[in-house]
Amino acid sequence: MTVIHKAAKDWKVDPNFVDYEGTRRGFDWSSAPDVCAGMGPGACNIAYAAVDRHQDGPAASRTALRFVSALDTDGAVATRDMSYGELGRLTRQFTNVLRSLAIGRGDRVFTLMGRTPELYISIMGALRNGSVVSPLFSAFGPEPIATRLSIGECDVLITTKAIFRKKLAKIRDQLTSVRHILVVDDTVDNDAARGTLNFWHLMDKADDNAPIEPTTADDPALLHFTSGTTGTPKGALHVHGAVQMHYLTGLYALDLHPEDIYWCTADPGWVTGMSYGVISPLLHGVTSIVDEAEFDATRWYTILQSQGVSVWYTAPTAIRMLIKAGPELAAQFTFPHLRFIASVGEPLNAEAVWWGQRVLGLPIHDNWWQTETGGIMIANTPAFDIKPGSMGRPLPGIDACVVRHRDDGSVSVIDEPDVEGELALKLGWPSMFREYLHQEDRYRKCFTDGLYLTGDLVKRDSDGYFWFVGRADDVIKSAGHLIGPFEVENALTDHPAVAEAAVIGKPDPTVGEVVKAFVTLKDGFSADDELRLDVLGHARKHLGAAVAPKEIEFVDSLPHTRSGKIMRRLLKARELGLPEGDISTVETMAETHAPAVSS
Ligand code: AMP
């Protein structure tokens, strides 16, 4: 096993976390830093710690957010800076906008837009108001949007003109809970025909004196949607107390120092983009780079270099896309300010870790967490050796173990190293999700014996490093996005030609997995390329490109268990040429082994 050793002589600044055993041993959540202390006893609000707290301090005039819009043809970068002071003022104004619309504590405010200033103002303004914020990924199609707005009982939706026209206008009647839709880039005033309000007109009328809602650590703050194998998406509810975790992990796992120029490439429509692209950097008073555009290798290298990014938090798919773009491109840039790179969301292959070392001058530090945990749990951090391919070790305040399931439904902890089992976390950290909205049973099933069961299969080695093995369920990770097969199958079976659909993640060297669908057709339809394109187009239109299948294979029949469930695992095993495992419960083997009609 090759290890990347760390030594103090390589540190550009002293890391925040240098004594692994000692810090963990002496750690106690009740005496961890309280970033909401200034709000008064018992009060806690994420926006207080992220924005209000800085208004009279040294960060007030510092740039909080640097928005990178266009790149000139000569490679110059066009940016707009927003200071902590300005963010504070706009945030308070937005709190008043919500109050003028009678939106208050506990009401749900959804965002559906790109990474523009209005997104950050809306998130912080709504949190200050005590409202619950749910960010949606702007590349979702109308179906995932409608499902989430309905499960989350959205009261206010903030979006753009283009998104409204393309994705919302047709489904507006279905969005029965939505009281107001605010459009951030409208030129007209409130549009009665559309039923929308002009964000900036409301902002202009609002003053910037808005006392913060005195929420507590147990009040709901954020609603993030995640996917399971079956059923509708799960709305994981998080509380304001999670801010303690966002702060500490920014300190320990991302090693943030106030003078950092920090870039988290994740979109705030996903949990990483919210916790570590919005909240954590603001808590630490650093300057965040916000790229308004999508991935482009030249653009990303240009941003890293021209902005002097010092801490970079990105994703394995992005790293692999940079690797694909070739060493010649990377060689045109230098990164003298870069001092720490971390990545999350999907397995980071050892080669990608080494590529960082060779090409960027720093290894990539993998870390692990998920929507439900609300913050980073297991990580490689600057001061400690990396075993490339491993996710690292649990952070202070986090106890992780590997468990095996017993037949009676309980679990036992596996003490021996290098044995595969499910990753479980001992309850007690502050950013743990508090419910799956309206799905009490699903929520309860995540816990046993004081442990949270993550659904991930891992091994722990004798040095305490965790290694990802795979998911215990059928959810798909594509380009870092968690995709529920059921949601995709539902959209496919809405197509008039489709009888049944089963969706799997097919391994892909760049994006981890691509969504592949196996589809049976209704009588009278023929499995040809024209129909395949039509079904693909239908899926993209309804689900959005990030979720829709990339590949469709027409088959005569799908394998089912005797109880009628589609056996996605069997389809996956066949796709990969792997052993099919126990197939004693497959309904009709003759049928299910029928060859594909076309592929
Ligand atoms: P999400 O809730 O969308 O953030 O997805 C969480 C899931 O992503 C985890 O349960 C894992 O399956 C996967 N994941 C996150 N980080 C890693 C990592 N470092 N290595 C492997 N898989 C990861």
From TrEMBL:
State its Enzyme Commission number(s). 6.2.1.1
| GO MF assignments | acetate-CoA ligase activity
InterPro entries annotated for this entry? Answer: AMP-bd_C, AMP-bd_C_sf, AMP-binding_CS, AMP-dep_synth/lig_dom, ANL_N_sf
Q: Please name the Gene3D superfamilies in this protein's record.
A: 3.30.300.30, N-terminal domain of ligase-like
* Positions of the AMP-binding enzyme C-terminal domain: 487-565
For whether the record's keyword set contains DNA-binding, the answer is no
- Which keywords belong to this entry? Acetylation, ATP-binding, Ligase, Nucleotide-binding
SUPFAM superfamilies, alphabetized: Acetyl-CoA synthetase-like
The AMP-dependent synthetase/ligase domain, residue ranges: 77-437
Protein name (record): acetate--CoA ligase
> What organism is listed for this UniProt entry?
Mycolicibacterium pallens
Highest classification ranks of the organism: Bacteria, Bacillati, Actinomycetota, Actinomycetes, Mycobacteriales
Q: Which gene encodes it?
A: acsA
